[in-house]
Write a structure and sequence with these properties.
Length: 137
């Protein structure tokens, strides 16, 4: 029982972190990209369901006591499940950036030894240092 509980808690934490990541990015951050994604939603929809309605009219049929059977197609409201495609805007960090809190931070594949990463794979070196990773003095 404890193992199952831990499993559900972990699933909940993963789901929470996924939801947080899609909701927490600052839309004013120039390094946030967004796109429209589609998803399916199950909906209950109404429709006009045809059925054969039997009714009687007066007629000259003496064997049926002057009653004749007639048919007409009538409609009644029925319900069915259907899939509806919905769209939502998804925010994510642009290529070359990773998420940190509310912002997208540039990613340098090589660590900036004496400097800081200012855009993807671009280090801004401290004075007196150079090279692509700021390791040359």
């Amino acid at each position: 029982v404890t193992h199952m509980m831990v499993k559900w808690i972990l699933k909940g934490l993963i789901l929470f972190s996924l939801l947080k990541s899609t909701l927490s990015l600052n839309p004013d951050d120039p390094n946030v990209c967004s796109h429209w994604e589609s998803y399916a939603v199950t909906v209950q929809e109404s429709y006009a369901h045809p059925f054969d309605q039997i009714y009687y009219t007066r007629c000259t049929d003496i064997l049926n006591w002057f009653k004749c059977t007639r048919h007409r197609i009538s409609y009644k409201t029925a319900y069915r499940r259907g899939l509806r495609t919905m769209y939502r805007r998804r925010s994510q960090c642009c290529p070359g950036y990773y998420e940190s809190g509310d912002y997208c931070i540039p990613l340098c594949t090589e660590e900036c030894v004496h400097g800081r990463c200012v855009s993807p794979d671009t280090c801004h070196c401290e004075p007196g240092w150079g090279g692509t990773d700021c390791s040359s003095g």
